[in-house]
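Section 3.1: Structural characterization of target chains.
Under the original work plan, the team committed to producing a structural model for every single-chain target entering the pipeline before any wet-lab resources were allocated. The record below documents one such target. The sequence was received from the expression subgroup and is listed exactly as submitted; it comprises 1032 residues.
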Amino acid sequence: MQRWPVLLFLAWVCFLFFAGIGLFMSGFLLTRIELASSSSCSDPLVPPPWERQSLPPGSCWAPQRFSKAVLVIIDALRFEFARFNPAKASPLPYENKLSFLHHLATSQPRHARLYRFRADPPTATMQRIKGLTTGSLPTSIDVGSNFATYAIQEDNLLAQLVQNGRRVVFMGDDTWEGLFPKKFFRSYFFPSFNVKDLHTVDDGILQHLYPTVDSGEWDVLIAHFLGVDHCGHKHGPDHPEMAKKLTQMNEMLRSLVDHLGNDTLLLVAGDHGMTETGDHGGDSEKEVNAALFVYSKTPLFGTGPPEEPEAVPQVNLVPTVALLLGVPIPYSNIGEVMAELFSGDGDAVSAALQQLSVYHINAKQVDRFLHSYSLVAQDLPAEQLQRLQELFSGAVEEHTQLLAQVQGAALVPPELESRLGSLISRFQQYLREARAVCTQSWARFHPLRMVGGCILIAASCLLCYMASELATASDSFYRSCLLYPLLWGLLVAGLLGLAHVFTQEGLDLLLVSSWAAAASQLGFFWHWWGQHPKRAPLVMLLVGKLHWDGRLTVPEGPKQQLLGFSSYRREIWYLLCLVAMLLVCVRLSGFFHQCREEIPQCRPSLFLSPLASLRNARAKNLFYLLCVALLAGLVYAVRSWLRHYGNLNSSDPLVLFVRWGFPLVVLCIACYWAVASSADDSLGKLQELVQVAVVAFPWAVYGLASMGLLLLLCNPMTVFAKDTRESAGSIVTPYLGVPSSEVDFLHVIPQIYKRMQESQKSRLERGSCKATVAAYGLGSVYSAALIIALTLLGFLLMLLHSERLSLAFLLLFLEAFVLLHIHTRARGLAGDAEPFSVPWYAVISWLLAASQFFYSTGHQPIFPAIHWNAAFVGFHLDHSTNLLPAVLVGANTFASHILFAVGCPLLLLWPFVCEMPSSQKRKPKKEPREELQEVEEHMMEMRLRESPEKFSTALLQLGLKYLFVLGTQLLACVCAAMILRRHLMVWKVFAPKFLFESLGFVVSSICLLLGISLVMRVDCAVSTWFSHLQLR
């Protein structure tokens, strides 16, 4: 069996797909260009000379209104959390808890005001922090670095504060440490990633907040609380814990206001909102609708608040705070100042003049940024930039004329007030249109790379199909279809590397990989065309083969006789029962679906929430017992299957682990579910014990599963060999197991009789006596290893999901079992003469089941639906690295992809395991002597050993077919994302779908290689076993 050529060929095909994905992604998810320029006090954006006043000390661009500011960020503070409605008699847990904000706004209407704080998607914490400090719009690609933050190099509010000598103190979310290294005068960082921890960050802030405020050793204080956000992730907003958290925030604000001075500005803001399930990351109304509360002990507003709170984009906070504190606006800001905060205590004309002054500064800053940006990037439309320039020039010209008339006292107050209001509206129009242009055009696509990525993926799909049809076990095939294309690719990569060395330019590894992949594909097609110059066009060959799959031609090879009528009817009924079971599994899997926010009438499945969220103790206990019982049932079913085929008879370490380790793993998972579902109810010392158990039991499962997989890799043989002294030839018989009941004895007796016949015949003909080896479980040795591996992976993946989703995993295993039997029976009924070839319909149905259970394990291809809790199964504190939580969350998200990809070789093995007894009845009647020679045990999977070349070719063809179907799905998503890149829903639907499909392809292809590698490892062990057997 050729093992390494098969694995290398599949790995090379995966690389081709990966290169196409990377090239397309580099063109589709490009970040905007960040300008290195920064603002300074010396910039020509100071107030005009007509005001005849000099700026006070410590002020830049505009007079400083406040010497200190406190920014309290309550993560995920949705607007509904901050709004107070006294008319509600029985509010929800998240309503009417921040009563102190309502008290300030009603008792001091000119000192306090509540706003709707509109966040720009994506609503992940790191992107919102960037928006709140730079005044710009982070792009969708930054979502991938949400938990691997990079320092902000762009000009930002904190950099301006530090540059102008202000002392910035921070306490809270440690995300800020990665974004703003060495920017804080004093800092108290706390781990932020553990979403199950509701109190560590908040309690740490409260420990330092009031002493720091009273010390006065600060100019700007930032406190980032995380309890509300973590409570939403863990329990959702409609939970008593949310009421406790919001009440804690209310008392914190009440105490904080008492410690503030008259020269201090207080800002209470949410960086984003949350959905009804407590998630965020998308652009639904509840995710982007946060709250902003502004308060000062000195009057801020010239008029009372409006009836309905005003909606303010989050980027507007940056220029507003910068000018209020007397520092320059960050260079790349596109926000609009909140002019009502600059009204002061004067009359309407004086207030309008002050507002006009800050609008003029803001507009000049935005115009300077747009001009600089357009010089280095071409993604902003020229006609829209021209219109913006006309708006700005007209407003500035009118502003100059109006100031001249005001200086000469040529306007009376009513007319002046009207002119001022009109000019302010013109500046507002300019700033809002500028922001809209940037919002629409910020994603800087690279069409050439996108097209190149599509071509690479499409060519890889075509290559998979052609190679699956042409694959043979000959050396010439691997030489022409693998070695030569690899040499072509390496040659192109080497030439590009040398070119970069001579030109002294930076080496773009992605482009080099893409060119190498394209060259290797051309090498494959070139050699194929050279060997088949008269073949039909490729497209016709592909379409015809996929549509008809040989139905228009007579199959070659020996024809098999059809079953008798009674047997045929029995098999048909059995197949119909299997199809009915499949339909039941598909229907039941719909009970575990997550909802998308585009379907408002949808209600998320009750099975998605953990048992700890259930308030009914009886329902919690019943669900717990059901989950544990079904988990034990899975172990019983696996062990029964292994026992039936004789794979539990030996005393090898792997077999002993299956006997005793599987129940122990189930016990550890059951104990973990028990303590996790009751962790919030325990008190005192019991709470400490529960916290230890919540970490210990998952680690026990990790350890046991790792031990089982290690034993499987070291010695995957689950065969029990028994030597006897009989007068028979040297034969190896795959027994079905040890008889354990009367039915089994009735089955064994005919086998003993057949053995006696063979023994007597051998004695008469040969007169010799040779050793006979009875091998229990040899006929299912490949499938047994895969089933053990899938069971261990299933344990790990169920641990990473909520308890009740274990029911979905049991449905997954049941549906996979039914699909395998349908595939086997369908092939038996069709009289397939190609047992070493897996038909296309089997591969497609297998992959459709993988996609089905992606949704039926509570996932959706959107960022808010990611189960972040999986990163902390077995971890109480924060992670020291981002790799491990990424692996855990990825395993949780793509659990179905992992299981079906690893189990893909079962599509080839299962028909051999389930050899139908009726197959012998199809043979024509023979003489008694010939019939005696034909009587033998079913060889089952050992038939694969009879033709090792066909075995390796079958594995290669199966892997290529699997990658072809996966690649076709990926190609459809890539084309949809490219064609609809300017669609309104591109970042809501098509871009997330592309990202999830790409990651799913990567995970599936890697797991497919692992599954085929396991089969080859078993084959290597079987070869070693046979060689040792011959030496006896």
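The mean pLDDT is 82.
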